[in-house]
Amino acid sequence: MFIRVVIFASLVLIASCAIQTHPPHVHSQRVDYYQLETHKPYDEVLAELEIAIAEHNFRITGHSRVGKVIRDRGAKDFPEYDTIQFCNLTLARTMLEITPHAVGFMPCNVVVYQFAGKTIIKTHLLPEDGDNPELNEFAVKMNPQLKQIVDFAAEE
């Protein structure tokens, strides 16, 4: 019986050490996504994403062709997966002047991948209901642009 009590007490102590707490200055934020599907050819979706990004005055800062690299390494039937990062330095500066914590949302990012015979296009949106009214206002103006980029690429 004593051994069971010691084991139980030890488990409670170990579990209490594993609970993560956040310092009061760290904010957690739910991230919402905007996603569309299309039957357009994958390469056409990628090309139209590049056009839409440029038309909204963003510059592509990175493009990871994850699916292609995995296929190149021997998995010949691996599906397409791409991530495209983009930024507008004027908007980035505005957002970071509102709060330096917004750096976690940078750069803007869109993912494209194949699933169940469709091409999926997905981007994360900026939070519009956080505890910073100025950042919320910025997000309300920014999110429609992100959605329009995805819309353009998905449009058949």
Automatic annotation (TrEMBL):
The keyword rRNA-binding does not apply. Residues 69-123 form the DUF302 domain. The keyword Plastid does not apply. Keywords: Signal. Residues 1-21 form the signal peptide. CDD domains: DUF302. Pfam families: DUF302. SUPFAM superfamilies: TT1751-like. PANTHER family: SLR5037 PROTEIN. This is DUF302 domain-containing protein. It comes from Methylomonas lenta.
